[in-house]
């Protein structure tokens, strides 16, 4: 009888420890804002999607070419939410560009860049003095029926003082 009681107690402790480990994992995921489950995104026929850009501390950027809608993805590490993005439109047609935090769906900006024009966006000049939250972002370019042709460059930092604004 004592053996059964000891075995039952050991089993209860093991189950409790496993439960605490699962809860800790859930808490860590909530703290980082990263979902354990992959996001399901609809596919649009004329949409071109690039692989993620993983340069999160320092410079980021890539050419943006393809269909009428092109998405570029990158990650901002927690604590490095001060960002400066420069977007250049090489097309003769205007493009709409938006920056969205994937986990929350928050759109940080949606702007139009004229044909052969450029736009520089800095979080601390646009009401986000504390920086952007860490996580995955989508920079979406839409040519309004025309093919997108451009480039974006940027950099992230833990401090606004790392940016010299002219």
- CATH top level assignment of the largest domain: Mainly Beta
Number of domains: 2
Q: How many distinct helices? A: 1
Enumerate the strands of the largest sheet in spatial order, edge to edge or round the barrel.
1-3-8-5-6
How does the SSE layout of this entry go?
Layout: H1 2-32, E1 47-49, E2 59-65, E3 69-76, E4 82-89, E5 95-101, E6 107-113, E7 118-122, E8 135-142, E9 149-157
Parallel strand pairs: 1-3
Antiparallel strand pairs: 2-9, 3-8, 4-7, 4-9, 5-6, 5-8
Search tags:
166 residues; alpha+beta; Jelly Rolls; 2 domains; five-stranded mixed β-sheet; 1 helix
Short description:
By secondary structure, the chain is of the alpha+beta class.
Describe this structure as you would to a colleague.
The protein has 1 helix and 9 strands; from the N terminus they run αβββββββββ. The protein is α+β, with helices and mostly antiparallel strands. The protein has 2 domains: 1-32; 47-161, Jelly Rolls, CATH 2.60.120.380. A hairpin with a 5-residue loop joins β5 and β6 (107-113). It is globular, with a radius of gyration of 22 Å.
